[in-house]
Amino acid sequence: MDTTLLVIQLLNGLQLGILLFLVASGLTLVFGILDFVNLAHGAVYMLGAFICASLTFVTGSFVWAVFFALPLVAIAGYLLERFIAQPLYERDHLDHVLGTFGAILVIDTLAHLVWGPAGIAIPLPAYLDGQIEILTEIVVPTYRLTIIAAGLSAAAGLYWLVNFTRLGMLIRAGASNRTMVSALGVDIKTLFSLVFALGAVLAGLAGMLIAPITEASLGMGNNIIITAFVVIIVGGIGSMKGAFYAALFIGLIDTLGRAFLDDIFKLFMSSAAAENSAPALSSMLIYILMALILSMRPQGLFPPKLR
Description:
This protein is mainly alpha-helical and 307 residues long. It has a domain of 206 residues. The chain is built from 11 helices and 2 strands. A hairpin with a 2-residue loop joins strand 1 and strand 2. Helix 1 runs parallel beside helix 5 and helix 2 packs antiparallel against helix 3. It is globular and about 65 Å long.
């Protein structure tokens, strides 16, 4: 096996895992605390990419665009919670699914009206658009390492927020017993709005980070939201620790499977058969792994201590 290719694919898998965590952590916050199934989370991911793209051309700087786009995505998340999620909190999960699916259609249509059907490529500044030699003969794009560093920083900041701040204490208390938290005088509606906005910021940040690579495009959140749900199910619904480790695990498995599965198959079958079967199996690999893990640990790898 080519060591250089392996290292590069490991970094690709780590990058995918970090992006998955940013999306899945927002889902974990909303579903773990609010008990709300938000299919529109992927649309917020797309919205973050488009807002960042527009602000990049307005400000002339991708970094400043991310800085200004984050509060705008937070406002979008607040509006989504206020007008879509809030009226559905007391309804069952099927109503959540139907309501947020309708929100996806509305957001996609609005994005189409504002930005048009074509994708928007985001130019990177010169200092992010180069390459770095991390080991002998192993050169990786600077921006890939930037995504990994930014994602890990966001994960560390989220860990600090949830575990070492008063807001984090209220979030954890609300996840355990929202009725008691409300009885103690906490404005539970405001807390829910803050949690929803924070989840939107995390998803929007993931969209902003990936957009310079894939460009901002309509429906870009539809695929990642499915994988993000796999992440929170494998990691344990409501567990931030589980979301982090499951996202890295799934990101690596998905990337390495697509890169090396055909080579593995060629060890015991013909090249033609391997090249035909490997892509099909690699696309199903994370779902097969999810089924295997849940058959042994129905609550996920790292279920929350209190539910």
